[in-house]
Design brief:
The complex is a heterodimer of chains A (about 260) and B (about 475).
Chain A lengths: L24 E10 L2 E11 L4 E6 L5 H8 L7 E6 L2 E2 L5 H4 L4 E4 L11 H8 L8 H11 L1 H5 L10 H13 L5 E5 L7 H18 L2 E6 L2 H7 L2 E6 L2 E7 H6 L1 H8 L4
Parallel strand pairs in A: 3-8, 3-9, 6-7, 7-8
Antiparallel strand pairs in A: 1-2, 1-4, 4-5, 9-10
Chain B lengths: L12 H4 L8 H23 L1 E5 L5 E5 L1 H23 L15 H8 L1 H52 L8 H18 L3 H20 L7 H21 L1 H4 L12 E2 L2 E2 L7 H5 L6 H27 L1 H11 L1 H6 L4 H27 L9 H14 L4 H18 L5 H5 L9 H15 L31
Antiparallel strand pairs in B: 1-2, 3-4
Helix pairs in contact in B: 2-3, 5-11, 5-14, 5-15, 5-16, 6-7, 6-8, 6-14, 7-14, 11-12, 11-14, 12-14, 15-16
The chains are: A alpha/beta (about 260), B mainly alpha (about 475).
Chain lengths: ~260, ~475
């Protein structure tokens, strides 16, 4: 199975263009409940191959819920999630992870008592360590910092290093779609920039498709090809990153006073 | 947990030599008086009155104030002296440095396990040689075999609790399943120990899965409660299903262990006869010692091997973070069930051995206190540490046996004094001290299962606690 896709110019599917390929990830009418509380009230969203798509919104808007629902926990009550033409709405989480989708969950969730090396190894568990050595080299090339810390316990890393580890771990399974949940959470601006640069590079050079959930709207929209704005479990706006950045309501709600 | 400042820093010596504050006698007196008052308050209901039932079972209360007052005085004096000594300027501590182990030390450390195994193999023979057949029986049976059973149980439970992080308070249930499996299969169908042993393991593993399924979604406290209930269910079924298990009376006359079919008996066709040596009952005991040693080492070998395989790493990852595990494509259901099943299987082996050793099983051997003891061994030893668990088992079980040796104390405290009665008190005190000094167990380091270049143990103090 080919995993790393060579960069191919023109592969990016521009949004809104006629005759665009079917989206890689397509979400239709998605509803998720926590008990009786409706967290997602019917989401429609597409992620095309080769794109960086970002989802921004305030605290409690349902961004992370959407991210988790894509991975099957919690389960969607209504609607469908289609990945490469396959309905994955009811698939168990660990099987979704085998479809070359990787997730770096909110709050990093690295394994604190295992070493950096072991953490990365866990990321490669899915494909049976087929190209472990090469992928490890790649991870260390992307984040040289992790190489210095390879023998250290995950829990002893700084916040930024932990985030790097979380992303590197997710990349170990050679995903084609990477779901990132708030990689900038609690990090210094310089580290946020580094991490966003890495995401951009991965997208440019390897054609990695990225779905990025962020509160840091300014950085996320600058990085993304397209963006969605979520308010109270509903998508209220969508468009290219630039468009959204220039929209007065987006500026008012997410940018003014922030950056 | 905050970063511990115990991190050795070269050059920390300069701070260690700072002058101690002068001794403040008034403050120390106040503090000591407070401690004495607390002791008096706490001791008043316990020490100030002697209570016991008389012949007609009525309560007799005799005042015994001197005890409470003495206790308060002792605490007062102890606290005061402690403060006085503590305030004295200490000799500057030697600088703590990053210790680089020498080569010979490294060799001993690397092969420590093999030395320990060699010592254990030699143990019964040395004992017989030194103390004779009769004198050594106690040491091989009460100490050797008994401790090794708990080492094995501790290692088995370590898979579930230490590696997979699933708090199991009903582990004794699998021990019971193993013991009754052998007892029933051998008395009913006449199957030999060596056939029953794997069967007992399989049956226990099966029960481990049965326990595993309903508790898949539970973690921490909730899981602990359900496993506790499971342990009790098994025990109560064993008590009440009298047709099968003979209830409280238990199953007796379980066939004894044979040397792969050759019985340990005097005369023709026995073990001694076969090897042309003089018959002695100790031969069976020594054989049993080697059997449990082999079983315990098997448990250890399997655990160490599995830790290096994907399933073992998945257990540890599961202990660390279940959500992250799932997002990395690990099937948490299978991971948990294998942990329960494997842990239970080793419990079953140990139970089966227990039955063949005692030749008698009854539900009384499988009470909650057994589960608690095994769990205490795992926690005191250091979760996930094989050597720590072995050490803790030796201390806890060997310590209990040692209390029986302290007969001379009767001469000091009178004939009614039985040190064994104080087992739980000592046990509890030890737990409290451990919590203060080594909150993460005797061996708090976890050595990584894979290495980039060299092996490097990592102190548990450095990392925040796992999210139970």
């Amino acid at each position: 199975m080919t995993t790393i896709i060579e960069a191919a110019p023109g592969r990016k599917a521009a949004p809104g263009r006629d005759g665009a390929p079917t989206p890689m990830l397509s979400i239709r009418g998605l509803q998720t409940f926590y008990g009786k509380i409706c967290a997602l009230k019917g989401i429609d969203m597409d992620v095309n191959e080769g794109e960086i798509v970002t989802l921004i919104g305030a605290n409690g808007a349902g961004k992370s819920t959407l991210m988790m629902t894509i991975f099957g926990s919690p389960r969607a009550r209504e609607g469908s999630i289609t990945y490469e033409g396959r309905d994955i709405t009811r698939l168990p989480t660990h099987e979704i992870a085998r479809l070359e989708i990787a997730q770096s969950p909110e709050g990093r969730r690295i394994f604190p008592r295992m070493t950096v090396y072991e953490n990365l190894q866990m990321g490669a568990a899915i494909n049976g360590f087929a190209h472990f050595d090469r992928d490890l080299e790649r991870a260390f090339t992307i984040f040289p910092r992790l190489k210095e810390r390879a023998q250290q316990r995950g829990g002893t890393l700084s916040g930024g290093e932990q985030q790097m580890l979380a992303i590197a771990r997710a990349l170990m399974s050679r995903p084609r779609l990477l779901l990132l949940d708030e990689p900038s959470l609690g990090l210094a601006p310089l580290i946020v920039k580094q991490i966003f640069d890495v995401i951009r590079d991965l997208n440019k050079t390897e054609g990695l498709t990225v779905f990025l959930v962020e509160q840091n709207a300014f950085h996320a929209l600058k990085l993304a090809d397209r963006g969605y704005v979520m308010v109270n479990g509903l998508i209220t706006l969508s468009g290219t990153g630039k468009e959204l950045l220039s929209r007065p309501e987006v500026r008012a709600a997410y940018l003014e006073g922030g950056h | 947990m905050l970063m511990d400042t115990k991190t050795p820093v070269p050059g920390a010596a300069s701070t260690a030599a700072r002058p101690a504050p002068p001794f403040d006698a008034v403050a120390a007196l106040k503090s000591a008086a407070f401690s004495g008052a607390v002791t008096l308050g706490l001791g008043f209901p316990l020490l100030a009155y002697d209570t016991h039932p008389d012949i007609s079972n009525a309560l007799v209360v005799l005042p015994r104030w001197s005890w409470a007052i003495w206790a308060a005085v002792i605490v007062f004096a102890g606290r005061f002296i402690g403060l006085m000594v503590g305030a004295r300027p200490r000799a500057a501590k030697r600088p703590q440095q990053l210790r680089v182990p020498s080569r010979s030390e490294g060799f001993v450390k690397a092969n420590l396990a093999w030395f320990a195994v060699a010592a254990l193999v030699a143990f019964p023979l040395v004992m017989v040689g030194a103390l004779g057949a009769n004198g050594s029986l106690k040491w091989i049976n009460n100490y050797g075999i008994q401790i090794l059973i708990y080492v094995m149980l501790g290692w088995g439970l370590n898979i579930v609790v230490g590696l997979a992080g699933l708090l199991d308070l009903g582990y004794v249930a699998f021990y019971a399943v193993g013991a009754y499996s052998y007892a029933l299969l051998s008395t009913t169908y006449g199957l030999s120990f060596w056939i029953c042993l794997p069967l007992a393991g399989i049956l226990a593993a099966f029960w481990g899965m049965i326990l595993g399924f309903p508790v898949l979604r539970l973690r921490g406290d909730y899981l602990a409660i359900v496993t506790l209930a499971f342990g009790e269910i098994i025990r109560i079924v064993l008590i009440n299903w009298t047709d099968l298990t003979n209830g409280y009376a238990g199953i007796s006359a379980i066939p004894r262990a044979t040397f792969f079919g050759v019985p340990f008996k005097d005369g023709e066709g026995g073990f001694a006869d076969l090897f042309g040596i003089e018959y002695n009952p100790i031969q069976r005991t020594i054989f049993l010692f080697y059997v449990i040693l082999a079983l315990a080492l098997l448990t250890n070998a399997v655990t160490l091997r599995l830790r290096r395989l994907p399933v073992g790493r998945a257990w540890e990852a599961l202990r660390e973070d279940e959500i992250a595990c799932r997002s990395l494509g690990i099937n948490t259901v299978n991971t948990k069930l294998t942990a329960f099943a494997l842990g239970a299987m080793f419990g079953g082996f140990a139970g089966s051995f227990f039955a063949v050793r005692q030749a008698f099983v009854s539900p009384e051997s499988f009470t909650f206190i057994e589960s608690a003891t095994i769990l205490a061994i795992v926690v005191l030893g250091g979760m996930g540490s094989q050597i720590g668990v072995a050490l803790a088992a030796t201390v806890l079980i060997g310590g209990t046996e040692l209390l029986r040796e302290l007969d001379f104390l009767k001469r000091i405290f009178g004939d009614g004094f039985d040190p064994v009665q104080y087992r739980m008190l000592i046990f509890g005190g030890g737990m409290v001290l451990m919590m203060i000094w080594r909150p993460r167990g005797i061996i708090a380091t976890r050595s990584p299962s894979i290495f980039l270049k060299e092996r490097k143990a990592i102190s548990g103090d450095m990392v925040k606690e796992g999210h139970g």
